[in-house]
Specification:
The complex is a heterodimer. By secondary structure, chain A is α+β, with helices and mostly antiparallel strands. Chain A contains 12 helices and 14 strands. Chain B folds into 2 domains: 76 residues, Ubiquitin-like (UB roll); 80 residues, DNA polymerase, domain 1 (Orthogonal Bundle). The chains are: A alpha+beta, B alpha+beta. At the A-B interface, helix 2 and helix 6 of A face strand 4 and helix 3 of B.
Chain lengths: 285, 168
């Protein structure tokens, strides 16, 4: 239950960090370590070299631009949970954060670390896909931007290439007209999602003109429910439409069966959670 | 094997040590410094018994590398009160029987201390949620929640001087 030996490097600037990753493709980044260290304690992960990016000031912080919020990759969960800027501009993030881990873990854990770890039961990968967030990535070959919806490839698998690290998360400000909701079932509050649904949308004259739905915990990476979004687009907000959407959501997911729940249980959860999330999202319509 | 030098403050005392990068803060506290009050339960961050305070915030010491505590100020259970003058939180846990075997108690107290600093007048529901991330095998949790609420009262009624004296 103790990590295997490794070398630890602690750069204090971003260029320094990028150079270290470029020099060694096998090096792994650590920030809060709240997902990585448990894996190392179990020796599931045995990196030969860790690069601690938690002491690089420019990687942490929340910046408000005119139409978007930029979050540094090593910003801690609690900083985001308690941020007025996040609450006012990305309320779906703020509301979903109530379900993420526990207070002490959130003191150290970072949003970037959570995303790059890409646990299929993690909430934020689903939330950020529902928000059409963009991720800024840097490596020795330069910088690039990738959509959240293209970042999560599979369980614990992301689009980060060799020597690349996540720098920041950019989220467009949610409009005042938007409804939103996050729903999850877990054993204890804060535990990993058995299933979770993130939802946001707008309706004009009771007709849906924008809806985003994303799911986590149900097999594979967190992902958008595009079929359900297409079904709802343009529809009137009625109990029947929401129920049908929820039924469709349960049909389209392919959950795993494990100790936390069977495939059927997860499908049933997805249906209930989607219905509740949509009801709350379009409650004002 | 490579070692790195760390400099940190633990319970008010400056410490310097050469540690392997893989040494967990929990093991540094227990084996390196001989402070056995911090316990190790699951060693993968689920149970919370290893919780200590780092720069004023609770952390799970089994999920922190000792090297990541370089430059930090750590407080463990040993820093709270003493045998003749209990900290109000310890007093509350004792009176409300918020412990039986005591294994989870240092972690519960660390969590309680941070929680009450941010929320000095909690509801029962808030206090319950505050410790919901930590496991106890003995008490069934109700007595722990009782202890937190009692601690809030004791801290509120205690002159500031006693709180400072108990922290020394």
């Amino acid at each position: 239950m103790k990590p295997a030996p490794f070398e630890l490097l602690t750069p204090t600037t971003l260029p320094e960090a990028i150079a270290l990753f470029a020099a060694d493709n096998e090096a792994i980044a650590i920030a809060g370590g709240q997902s990585l260290i448990p894996m190392m304690n179990f020796r599931i992960s045995q990196p030969g070299k860790l690069v601690d990016i938690g002491r690089i000031p420019e990687l942490s912080g929340i910046t408000e631009r005119e139409d978007k919020i930029i979050i540094g990759a090593t910003t801690t969960h609690n900083t985001l949970l308690h941020s007025q800027v996040i609450k006012q501009n990305c309320p779906l993030v703020a509301t979903a954060y109530e379900y993420v881990a526990h207070h002490t873990i959130r003191n150290r854990g970072t949003l970037g670390g959570n995303i790059c770890h890409a646990d299929p039961a993690s909430e934020m990968p689903a939330v950020l896909q529902a928000l059409d967030a963009e991720f800024q990535i840097a490596g020795s070959a330069g910088s690039r931007t990738i959509l959240a919806t293209e970042f999560f490839k599979g369980p614990y698998e992301t689009a980060l290439g060799d020597g690349e690290i996540l720098i920041a998360i950019a989220i467009g400000k949610q409009s005042e007209a938007e409804g939103y909701a996050f729903r999850e079932m877990s054993v204890r509050k804060g535990d990993f999602a058995i299933a979770g649904v993130a939802s946001r949308g707008t309706a004009t004259g009771s007709r849906i003109n924008m809806v985003r739905l994303a799911v986590c915990g149900v097999g594979g990476a967190a992902h958008r429910l595009r079929q359900v979004e297409e079904f709802l687009d343009g529809k009137a907000v009625t109990a029947d439409a929401i129920s049908e959407a929820a039924r469709l959501a349960a049909e389209t997911v392919t959950p795993q069966s494990d100790l936390a729940g069977s495939e059927n249980y997860r499908k049933a959860l997805v249906e209930s959670l989607t219905r509740e999330a949509l009801q709350e999202t379009f409650a004002a319509s | 094997m490579n070692k790195i030098e760390i400099n940190l403050t633990v319970n008010g005392n400056r410490q310097r040590a050469n540690v392997e990068p893989r040494l967990l803060l929990s093991d540094f506290i227990r084996d390196g410094l001989g402070l056995k009050g911090t316990h190790v339960g699951c060693s993968h961050g689920v149970c919370g018994v290893c919780t200590v305070s780092m720069d004023g915030k609770t952390v799970r010491s089994c999920l922190t590398l000792a090297a990541q505590a370089d430059g930090a100020s750590i407080e463990t259970i040993e820093h709270l009160g003493n045998a003749t003058e209990l900290h109000p939180i310890q007093q509350a846990f004792s009176e409300a029987q918020g412990l039986q075997c005591g294994f989870c108690t240092p972690g519960m107290i660390a969590i309680t201390r941070e929680f009450l600093q941010h929320n000095p007048t909690p509801t029962r529901e808030e206090a319950t949620e505050a410790v919901s991330g930590a496991l106890c095998r003995c008490t069934g949790y109700e007595a722990i929640v009782d202890a937190i609420l009692l601690a809030a009262e004791l801290i509120a009624n205690t002159p500031i001087r006693t709180e400072e004296a108990a922290d020394e």
